[in-house]
Amino acid sequence: MPLFDRLKTLFATRVARPPAGHASDAPADADVGEDDPDDPFPEPIRLEITDVFDLHTIAPRDVERVVHEYLSEARRMGFRSVRIVHGKGQGVQRRLVHNILARTPFVRNWTDAPPHSGGWGATVAHFIPQDMWGNDER
Fold first, then answer.
1. Half-sphere CA count of 125, side-chain side, radius 13 A
2. Is residue 114 in some structural domain?
3. Report field, pTM of the whole predicted structure over 0.70
Protein backbone atom coordinates (compact mmCIF):
# COMPACT_ATOMS: atom_id res chain seq x y z
CA MET A 1 0.00 0.00 0.00
CA PRO A 2 1.49 3.40 -0.94
CA LEU A 3 2.51 5.75 1.86
CA PHE A 4 -0.30 8.18 1.07
CA ASP A 5 -2.93 5.46 1.39
CA ARG A 6 -1.34 4.10 4.56
CA LEU A 7 -1.28 7.54 6.19
CA LYS A 8 -4.83 8.20 5.04
CA THR A 9 -6.04 5.04 6.80
CA LEU A 10 -4.01 5.83 9.92
CA PHE A 11 -5.57 9.27 10.23
CA ALA A 12 -9.08 8.54 8.94
CA THR A 13 -11.73 9.59 11.43
CA ARG A 14 -14.95 9.60 9.47
CA VAL A 15 -17.05 6.83 8.02
CA ALA A 16 -16.56 6.47 4.29
CA ARG A 17 -19.69 6.79 2.21
CA PRO A 18 -20.19 5.46 -1.30
CA PRO A 19 -20.16 8.08 -4.07
CA ALA A 20 -23.48 9.74 -4.92
CA GLY A 21 -25.64 7.50 -7.06
CA HIS A 22 -23.73 4.37 -6.01
CA ALA A 23 -25.80 1.43 -4.82
CA SER A 24 -24.85 0.48 -1.29
CA ASP A 25 -25.11 -2.92 0.35
CA ALA A 26 -26.20 -1.25 3.58
CA PRO A 27 -29.91 -1.10 4.39
CA ALA A 28 -31.58 2.19 3.50
CA ASP A 29 -32.12 3.06 7.16
CA ALA A 30 -28.52 2.27 8.17
CA ASP A 31 -26.51 5.15 9.60
CA VAL A 32 -23.90 5.88 6.95
CA GLY A 33 -22.26 8.50 9.15
CA GLU A 34 -22.35 12.24 9.17
CA ASP A 35 -19.51 14.50 8.26
CA ASP A 36 -17.80 15.24 11.53
CA PRO A 37 -17.68 19.04 12.00
CA ASP A 38 -14.68 18.56 14.31
CA ASP A 39 -12.73 16.51 11.76
CA PRO A 40 -9.64 18.60 10.90
CA PHE A 41 -9.20 16.59 7.68
CA PRO A 42 -12.60 16.40 5.98
CA GLU A 43 -10.92 15.83 2.60
CA PRO A 44 -7.98 13.56 1.81
CA ILE A 45 -4.59 15.20 2.24
CA ARG A 46 -1.99 14.67 -0.48
CA LEU A 47 1.49 14.23 0.94
CA GLU A 48 4.49 14.92 -1.23
CA ILE A 49 7.22 12.31 -0.85
CA THR A 50 10.57 14.06 -0.56
CA ASP A 51 14.03 12.95 0.49
CA VAL A 52 13.36 14.18 4.05
CA PHE A 53 10.89 12.52 6.41
CA ASP A 54 10.24 14.08 9.84
CA LEU A 55 8.95 11.61 12.43
CA HIS A 56 7.93 14.27 14.95
CA THR A 57 4.33 14.18 13.68
CA ILE A 58 4.04 10.37 13.69
CA ALA A 59 2.63 8.59 16.75
CA PRO A 60 5.30 6.33 18.31
CA ARG A 61 3.14 3.24 17.80
CA ASP A 62 3.05 3.94 14.04
CA VAL A 63 6.70 4.83 13.46
CA GLU A 64 7.95 1.41 12.41
CA ARG A 65 5.17 0.78 9.91
CA VAL A 66 5.29 4.30 8.46
CA VAL A 67 9.10 4.31 8.10
CA HIS A 68 8.98 0.96 6.26
CA GLU A 69 6.38 2.36 3.89
CA TYR A 70 8.25 5.64 3.43
CA LEU A 71 11.49 3.83 2.55
CA SER A 72 9.72 1.67 -0.02
CA GLU A 73 7.93 4.63 -1.57
CA ALA A 74 11.09 6.80 -1.64
CA ARG A 75 13.01 4.00 -3.35
CA ARG A 76 10.18 3.45 -5.82
CA MET A 77 10.30 7.16 -6.68
CA GLY A 78 14.01 6.86 -7.47
CA PHE A 79 15.64 8.52 -4.47
CA ARG A 80 19.18 7.29 -3.87
CA SER A 81 19.28 8.51 -0.28
CA VAL A 82 16.86 9.93 2.28
CA ARG A 83 17.12 11.78 5.59
CA ILE A 84 14.88 10.62 8.42
CA VAL A 85 14.51 13.18 11.20
CA HIS A 86 13.88 11.34 14.47
CA GLY A 87 15.04 13.95 16.99
CA LYS A 88 17.76 13.80 19.61
CA GLY A 89 15.93 13.05 22.86
CA GLN A 90 17.10 9.88 24.57
CA GLY A 91 17.80 8.06 21.32
CA VAL A 92 14.82 5.69 21.35
CA GLN A 93 13.49 6.75 17.93
CA ARG A 94 17.05 6.82 16.54
CA ARG A 95 17.64 3.20 17.61
CA LEU A 96 14.27 2.17 16.16
CA VAL A 97 15.07 3.83 12.82
CA HIS A 98 18.52 2.19 12.74
CA ASN A 99 16.95 -1.22 13.46
CA ILE A 100 14.47 -0.72 10.62
CA LEU A 101 17.28 0.28 8.25
CA ALA A 102 19.29 -2.79 9.26
CA ARG A 103 16.36 -5.02 8.25
CA THR A 104 15.62 -3.24 4.97
CA PRO A 105 17.33 -5.20 2.19
CA PHE A 106 17.70 -2.29 -0.26
CA VAL A 107 19.41 0.01 2.27
CA ARG A 108 23.16 -0.04 1.62
CA ASN A 109 24.22 1.95 4.71
CA TRP A 110 23.29 4.86 6.94
CA THR A 111 24.94 7.51 9.04
CA ASP A 112 24.09 10.47 11.23
CA ALA A 113 23.16 13.54 9.23
CA PRO A 114 25.71 16.35 8.91
CA PRO A 115 25.52 18.92 11.74
CA HIS A 116 23.70 21.48 9.54
CA SER A 117 21.05 18.84 8.66
CA GLY A 118 20.19 17.57 12.12
CA GLY A 119 23.38 15.85 13.31
CA TRP A 120 22.58 12.86 15.47
CA GLY A 121 18.91 13.92 15.48
CA ALA A 122 18.56 12.67 11.90
CA THR A 123 19.81 9.68 9.93
CA VAL A 124 20.79 9.63 6.27
CA ALA A 125 20.12 6.27 4.59
CA HIS A 126 21.66 5.32 1.25
CA PHE A 127 19.87 2.85 -1.02
CA ILE A 128 21.40 0.17 -3.19
CA PRO A 129 20.99 1.49 -6.76
CA GLN A 130 17.88 -0.03 -8.35
CA ASP A 131 19.79 -1.12 -11.45
CA MET A 132 21.93 -3.32 -9.16
CA TRP A 133 18.93 -4.48 -7.16
CA GLY A 134 16.44 -5.07 -9.98
CA ASN A 135 12.71 -5.15 -9.33
CA ASP A 136 12.91 -7.93 -6.75
CA GLU A 137 11.34 -6.64 -3.52
CA ARG A 138 12.36 -9.81 -1.64
1. 30
2. yes
3. no
